[in-house]
Amino acid sequence: MNVLRFSKLVFGSATVFFLIAPLIAILPLAFTDSVFLNYPIPGYSTRWFEELFTAGVWQRSIINSLIIGCGTTVLATVLGTVGALGLRDRQLSLALATIKTIFLLPMVVPAVVLGVGMQLMFARYGLTNTYLGVIIAHTVVAVPFVVVNVLAVLQGIDRRLEQAAASLGAAPVTVLKQVTLPLALPGIVSGAVFAFATSLDEVVLTLFVAGPNQRTLARQMFSTIRENISPAIAAAAFVFIVGTVLIAVVLNFSRGTKQANG
Amino acid sequence: MNAPRLSKQVISLVLVAPLLLFLVVFFAFPLVTMMKSAVSDPVAARALPATARAVAGWDRVSPPTEAMKTAFVADIRQINDDQLFGDLVRRLNSAKSGFRTLMTKTRAAASNAAGTIDLIALDKRWADPSYWQAVSVAASSSITDRNLLAAVDLQRDASGAITALAADASANKTIMLRTFVMALTVTVACVLIGLPFAMIAASLDGWKRQLLLGAVLLPLWTSLLVRTAAWFILLQDTGLINSALMQLGLTSGPVPLIFNRTGVIIAMTHVLLPFMVLPIFSVLIGIPKNLMPAAASLGAHPVRAFWAVLLPLSLRGVVSGSLLVFMSALGYYITPALIGGAKDQMISSVIAYYATGAANWGMAGALGLVLLSATLILYAVYLRLSSEREARA
């Protein structure tokens, strides 16, 4: 039995190491003062963060990512939340069940396939090389995350709360505003966060739909790795990883308050 | 269906309408456009409208009629756009080689002299009905199966029968096979690591389980690009893995880990492992905790209890996880593009090349259709399996 416990410990630790170590290993490289991404780090500086936040292309790409990320978050959260409200019944009719499957399909379709189609179609309607086009493309792949998150929370809401409000004379819109949406808020927030994160990380659709003026941070990282790798990549990765951990903490917190309330 | 139920249904449909409309316009319509580009072939029909009408009555075997020749020369004179002419020549040449020189010669003659031109005197190939067959097929139809056939390394020969392309003419089958093998390798690697890991996580509780699950979730939430960048840095010849190996004296020079298959498989396994662990874990925690002690109390050796009880029960999670991993791996683009070499590019890279590099939308669409169909079939199987599980629960 001890052999089993020992091998479990070894295998478990090795896999945790495999999963986490690559993410930790690149963090210190963000602070190198060399132009190479190698260990041992010769000296520490913040020059690559300065490069990231002040160099023209990087700065522009960060601003673009924020514009497109916010646009995507708003559009995906509104569309996804309203859509999820229509799908909240546990027993869906065949039509609604089909619609639910369609809503989740953008998560499945290979990005390159969707990218080719979008480039062809967007070019026809003048949407390529525009912010609106990129926001729409990102919303398509971000919206399933909003639907899933909002739906999960909605299905946990006790319907009797809404019925009670209605029986006390609240109009349907009032019930929605005063009861349903506040109860669904944690799901809406996590959906919005997922939508923003999806947009931030999206490369393939951006490659097909965006022009040089809509170059996002992820797109800029992609071409930097491809063409001339520099430690600015590690600095950008540092920002991403720290951002992810912060988002995870925020999400955990919003879930925690939900549990405390419920 | 009674009235309140019906009105509830109507409200639901009104609520889902905006998103449904959005996805029809910006998700379904692009996919349809891509599929149409795979089968549409409007160039010849657009460039040769009069010829299309003239060949309508032709039996496609007898010598070309005067009306056809006159219409063809008239059409050629109408083409002012060099781009359109180039596309037309390419289209005709792909059906029958020889059109490149023939068309250039014919266009020069047609633009230099007004009035009727004796095409057969100009070039005796115009007396050959097989050239007119190609013109006729191209002009009278704006739909083609050429790209779809080429996507699987097939073509139509002069008689219209489907034959294999010459081995050096296309490499799509090789790329599909490579995509399949790479996706399968990643899936197997994920099972080999993910199944024991999920079992260990499910057997623990408290902070140890949280740690193991956190280790799966953190990479899942981290940007794909960041994870790929991390592997790019680690796998370099001067990267951390190679310097560690050399420090330990396991190797004297750097082991090639980047721009080859090994690197792509390692990075893709890392990226997709969470999709294997989570479904298996969710199946395992649904298994009653007392099953293994029950098997033991009935005299089963722990190994036998594992093989006969735990493994079969976790198989459902393994199948779901494998489908998810395999399906995602099939469409991978970024990781092979950054970590792989030229011989590790998967079908997505080829599609991207045809679309952005070669501007060959027909081939991009046809290969995209192949990838899309494979993915959707796998997804349908996955949905079927998970809905069965929900029905059981």
Please give a structural write-up.
The complex is a heterodimer of chains A (262) and B (393). Chain A has 262 residues and is an all-alpha fold. Chain A has one domain: Orthogonal Bundle (MetI-like fold). Chain A has helices spanning 2-25, 47-54, 56-86, 94-104, 111-124, 131-154, 159-167, 172-201, 204-209, 217-227, 232-261. In chain A, helix 2 (47-54) packs across helix 11. The longest helix of chain A has 31 residues, at 56-86. The two termini of chain A are 42 Å apart. The mean pLDDT of chain A is 89. With 393 residues, chain B is mostly helical. Chain B folds into 3 domains: 1-40, no CATH class; 43-142, no CATH class; 172-392, MetI-like fold, CATH 1.10.3720.10. Helix content of chain B is 73%, strand content 2%. Chain B contains 19 helices and 2 strands. In chain B, strands 1-2 form a two-stranded antiparallel ribbon. In chain B, strand 1 (154-156) and strand 2 (162-164) form a beta hairpin. In chain B, helix 1 (3-39) packs antiparallel against helix 19 (361-392). The longest helix of chain B has 37 residues, at 3-39.
